[in-house]
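Listing S7. Sequence submitted for prediction.
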Amino acid sequence: MKKKKWVRHIPLLIVEITVLLIAVGVLYVTLRTTSEVKKDNLNENEIAVNQQVKQSVQGSEENESKTQQTEESEYSGIYNIAFFGVDSRDENLGKGNRSDTIMICSVNMDTREVRLISIYRDTYLNIGNDTYKKCNSAYAYGGPQQALGMINMNTDLYITDYVTVGFSGLMNAVDALGGVEINVSEAEIKHLNNYQISMVGTTTDGEHFTATAGKDYTPVTTAGRQVLNGLQATAYCRIRYVGDDFARAERQRNLLIAMMEKAKTVSIGSLTGAVDAVLPYVRTSVDIGDIVPMLGMIGDFKVTVSDGFPFADMRNGGTIRTEGACVIPTSLEDNVIKLHELLFDDYGYVPSIELQTFSDRVEADTRGYLQY
């Protein structure tokens, strides 16, 4: 069955992970020392995965190992990796940080498609240890390992690789690419500039930041499609007052797509020159030593799906006890069925027994708090 290749590791070819890593500013381009990278040797056996999914995958892998693999088959299948963006301006990218961005990136090596799904950070879910809270708390409590488990348990996926990037890494990556082209609306300008000030300014009262336009930051003054620098682009994807948090997650995906498209246009020399500026602000489980330099293939890839989970017609909202305002899947089970359709074109997916149990619990916990 096709899924045997997407839920576990396939050979770590650079073309598979460069699409994501360049998009998020981690410009791995050559076999080089890994001393600057916060390499995280996660124990896969300790990452939570729904048992029914694990058994299915292991059975598929056993069958696959009995089949002679051709050289071409190494370049086939689907590779999934999780991306976390944390509110960190230093080099602390581990637990203790809430993940402002939670994203699944799925790369199909057969069709050259990249599919991006944001998981809304305020979604009420099992956070990977049978505790139910806002899902972004999983990273704060248990770092990448628990955050990966949170994703797997609530989606019936089996993801064991991740990349975490802090604000500084994202800003450096955009600047290394020479800026990215983003369509800024009139309503977004004020907030974009305010976020720039909050990231570079100073404060005496702990609340109001001050910064000098033209010196500390470059204000955006007009609406429309334009090239944003690293600080501007990072501020853009943090906006949460135009639209809602769903729009905010869409801006994050828009930025990653813009970065990937820009990366296709710059030279390999420009990419390699950007590595040192970015790596100190990245933490990942990816083994750089296994990567083969094949950057020339990145131009073949295209983002074909960009959406958010839970999906627009399958979510609600409500203030859940001490958790505050949450995004609530009206049926986690139905959302997972649609997720597997969008990521893998699987139109007959049946959620695991574990997932159905989590879905029932979310519904029971939130039934009395729904807003509409």
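Caption to Listing S7: primary sequence and predicted structure tokens for the chain studied. Residues 137-155 form the longest helix (19 residues). Confidence is low (pLDDT under 50) at residues 1-35, 68-73, 289-295.
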